[in-house]
Structure formats: C-alpha cells, structure tokens
Queue: 2 jobs
Job 1
Amino acid sequence: MPMLGLGTWENDDPAQCTESVRTALEAGYRHVDTAQIYENEAAVGEGIAAADVPREDVFLATKVWIDSLAPADVEETTRESLDRLGVDSVDLLYVHWPARTYDPEATLAAFADLQDAGLIDRIGISNFEPEQVATAQDVLGGDVFANQVELHPLLPQPELREACADHGVEVVAYSPLARGAVFDVPELTEIAEAHGVSEAQVSLAWLREKGVTAIPKATSEAHIRDNAASLDVSLTDEEVQTIDDLDRRDRRVDPDFGPWN
Ligand code: NAP
C-alpha cells in the first residue's frame, strides 16, 4: 500500500473530483481513498480512467457504509461501488464504522466471501477501537489488512497504533492535516519554517516516521503537489519528539455512533 494517498471526502463536485484524482495520479500518487457515503465513486473512477497511469498501478480503496453491513447488502452495495468506479475489483474494502448494521461475524464473513470471489483484494476496517480490532482479526483469522482512523499531531493515538501493530494490522491516517488545524500549531510552524516547507508536509512526514500511511484530501493541484512533497521531508529525532510532546488534543470527526462515544 503506497504510504501517501489522496483523500476525497467532500470533493463532491464531480468534475472537480475527477480532475483532482487525475492530477494526483499524474503527479505521482498511487493510492486513492473514497467511500460509498462520499457519493463520488463515479467521479473517482473517471479520474482514474482519465489519468495516464494504468489501473493496476493504482491502489484503490472504498468503504461500505453503516446501513449496508448486513451480508446481502455488503455484496450488493460493493458490486454497485465497483460499477460506479468502473473497475473489476478494489485493492481494499473497508467497513466504514463498527456501527448500526455491523455484526463482526456476519459482516466480516461477507467481506471474506467478496475476497474469495476476487471482487476485493484486501479487507479493511475503519474507526475500530483496540478490542474491536482484536475481535475482527480473530474472526477473520488474521486477514484484516488495515484500520483507517483519525490520526495527526493533535490526535496521535499511541495505544491504538500499538494495538494494530500487535495484531498485524496496518494503520491508515485519515484527516492527517486535522482538517486544517495543523496550520495553527506554533510548534509545527516552527519546524516547517526550519525546513522551508508547509505544516501539512511536517504532519505527513511525522506520520511516515510512525510507519503510518496518510490520505490527505486535497482539491487543487497546489495542495496535491505540496502534500506529495512531504515524501522528501526528513524530520530530526528532536523534531519528532517535539510533535510527540504536543499536549493539545483535537478530534475532528466525532459522530454519535463513534465507538469511543
Ligand atoms: P484532511 O486531509 O486532514 O484535510 C483536508 C483539508 O486540508 C481540506 O480543506 C484541504 O483543502 C486542506 N489541504 C490539503 N492539503 C493542503 C495543503 N497542502 N495546504 C493547505 N491546505 C491543505 O481532512 P479529511 O478530508 O477529513 O481527511 C482526509 C481523507 O481521509 C478524507 O478525504 C477521506 O478520504 C478520509 N476520511 C475517512 C474517514 C473515515 O471515517 N474512514 C473520516 C474522515 C476522512 P482543499 O480541499 O481546498 O485542497
């Protein structure tokens, strides 16, 4: 899984979304993240088709919404996602939240069936807490590939990262720029200025230091390229420590059905 991907939540003007995906792929991105609930799968698929990059070089992930986690709905809505995306299979299919119609045994068995049928290459979970990661990994006999969770310098989630490592589950950081809040953290600005880069790049470089894949959402070519340039930023141990020591906390995605509520 490429460690930098393009997020697409709220990139919901179809022409703009297609253009952002095409631009990102042609700028070197090889990982795109969408979801049924974003209602932009068709536009994402068009961006992939329009880019001068073969489909097989792109790591494409989508997510099944919480209303559709009963087995028959998992299969039906995933087939619909593939149709909208215009692909035969996705590289990663996530359970979007462990909520509403989620049932560990029934839901995950349906995901395993999709994998056996060749419609999805890997099974992911999203917004799972440590005990839920353990249960999912147990139910699937070790086949959970990744847990996508909110993660950035203002929500570092060390216990959750450790639990994922213990269970052999990759971590994918969503809202890796804290939806814009990283630009207002003086310590990040100071490190950014020392490197002549943006606070976004510092946050993404810090996540990479932690072994975490990040999927910043960016619409414009300028933001897409700025985030890609984070791959060239190396933080010193002292800078990583400064970010680890931040004590401000800010969870940006916090619906009532979040398992921590
Ligand atoms: P984010 O990536 O932390 O922040 C996106 C915001 O930062 C946008 O307003 C974007 O503006 C701006 N931005 C991006 N790059 C920038 C740069 N270099 N300089 C200045 N501003 C920049 O927030 P997010 O969209 O919440 O999270 C990223 C992705 O994670 C989502 O798009 C989605 O794919 C995924 N996600 C998943 C879940 C889940 O439950 N699994 C929840 C939330 C998000 P522009 O759009 O104008 O470029």
Job 2
Amino acid sequence: MTPEALRARLLAWYDANARDLPWRVGPAAHRAGVRADPYRVWLSEVMLQQTTVPHAAPYFLKFTARWPTVSDLAAEDDAEVMAAWAGLGYYARARNLLACARAVAKDYGGVFPDTEDGLRALPGLGPYTAAAVAAIAFDRSANVVDGNVERVIARLFAVEAPLPDVKPELKSLAAGLVRDERPGDWAQALMDLGATVCRPKGPLCDRCPVAEFCAGLATGEPDAYPRRVAKAPRPHRHGVAYILTRGSEVALVRRPPKGLLGGMLALPTTDWRGMGWTDEEARAAAPAAADWRPVGEVEHGFTHFTLTLRLLRAEGEAEGLIWTPRSGLDALPSVFLKAARAGLTNLL
Ligand code: SF4
C-alpha cells in the first residue's frame, strides 16, 4: 500500500459520493474553478464542532440568510447573535464567533486571511478550524484532523495506543497523507468517509473505498479502534428552576456574562450542586414570595456533568425580571427551554 494509492482511491470515491452540504462547493464545481466562501466554511466548521450536520444545517441557513457576510455578522448586536445561536449549545463558541467576525471586519477589511497561520492569529479561531478553512476555502495543504478523522486514521493504521494521549500520533499519521494536490477535497473526503462509511459504531467496511488498505479491518475488529482509556463518569448535579408566570408571560433572567451559558436568557435557578435541594431550601431561594408548587423535573446532559432540575411554578410578580411572552421562550438555551416547556405543560 502506498499513500498515493490510498489517496487516489479515496479522492475518486469523493468525486462520486461527496455529500451535498449547504456550505460546500462540490468536487465537480471545485474542478471548474468555483471556490468556497471562507465565511461559510468557517461558520459551518464552528457549528459542526458541537453538533451534527442535520442539526447544524438549518442554523447555517438561518445565519447566512440573515448575515450574508462576515461584516454583517460583525455589525450585529451580541444579544441577537446569541439568541440565534440558542439550541446549538456551547455559548462560549458564539462569543468567540463574534470576536472573530469583528476582528476580520475591523482588522482585515472583512476578508479572511488566506493562510493557516494567518487564520490562527484570529481571536477564538482554534487550530482545527484554521486548518479546515485554509484547506477548504484556500486550498492550502493543511492537516485537518477532528474526532472523525482521528477515528478513520486509528482504524486505517490499527493504532493500538489509546486516546487521548495518542492524538499527536494520529495527527502525524494523517499529515503523512496530505499533499499539495487537492487539499480541500482531501480534507472533505476524509470527513465524508468518517461521517457516512467509517461511522463510530458499525463501520460499513464492505462499502469502504479504502478497505483493502485498512489494517483495522484486517484485525477483524475495526470498531475496536480508536482505543480509549476508560472514562470517569460525569458528575451529577442538582438544581431548582422557577417558572414564575404573570398571565401569559414568564419571568426570565439574563445570566452573568462569564461562566456556563454566560450572557444567555434563562429561567431563574438556584446553583447547581452535588447535593439535592430540600423543599425549604428551594422555596427560600425562589425569585419571589409566591405559592410555589412542584411541577416535575427535567434531566439534561452537559459536556462535563449531568443535571437534574426540579421545577417549581407559581403565579406572581417581582422586580428585576424579564417578562417574556410564551412565544419568546424559543430563544432559551436547551436546558431552560426543556424546563420551561415541562413546567408550563405539567399540571399544578
Ligand atoms: Fe473504516 Fe472499515 Fe474503511 Fe477501515 S475498512 S477505514 S474501518 S470503514
């Protein structure tokens, strides 16, 4: 097996099977000289770092319809962008997105730098995104390695050392396959292979264009790669969320700018701690003196912990809250939207 043979096989497969994605310039159009818009590539890559293509695509279309250029996005108010981001999770990324857009608009006249190093110098733009934009938008021979590519490489080379320590080795094996020829298509071919064939569970090796090169398949257990060290379970936390209504309106608060879900609209809530909350504690921490009634609870998983949120509901009035019609609750981050929906639906 030579890297050249493997590349030729995978690129030919990509030419015939590339996914049609709203931010993508497909291989035929690319050959005809069409170039991807760096703004669209960058935006899609930031969105895709935290969610799947089907979930990200409507957000991508909404963002690019509303803010067709990076300068349009840069000129928008923070709150508008954060609200549009709601449901994509990881709000720190939305803040980084704006910081980066504003740097491109202010310092580069609205034009993205066209090298990996230049992109890397932008605020909030990490090494993976810099490599992806450099390769896909500017055809730079950058080594684009995310979790999906790590999985493909670990299988192709049957790498025995476990994640996460093996990451540099996987990156260097991936670099050995990058060439000056078609770097953007190569990066996207690997991404497509990981997404549609070399899937995390149940890889479709009988349909794989590079099966005959795959050392992982030759072991008979390709999905045993990448090896991993056993993960410690995520800690579990408990909190109470308050659904205070005034007729058809619901009381919200804006979370402090720093920290989890920073700057986002939210239901009033207690701290989220390891120990559960007694009824007395829950009522004492409420945002208003009212006849609070339990209306169930919701579970939510964050990256670093899981959460049980008990729900208390009351009709009442209080100062300093943001009264919002029920139709405006869709702008809430997922955890609070889930809690609000459950709390407003459950019977008192
Ligand atoms: Fe992945 Fe199977 Fe292809 Fe190997 S043969 S790269 S495990 S899909």
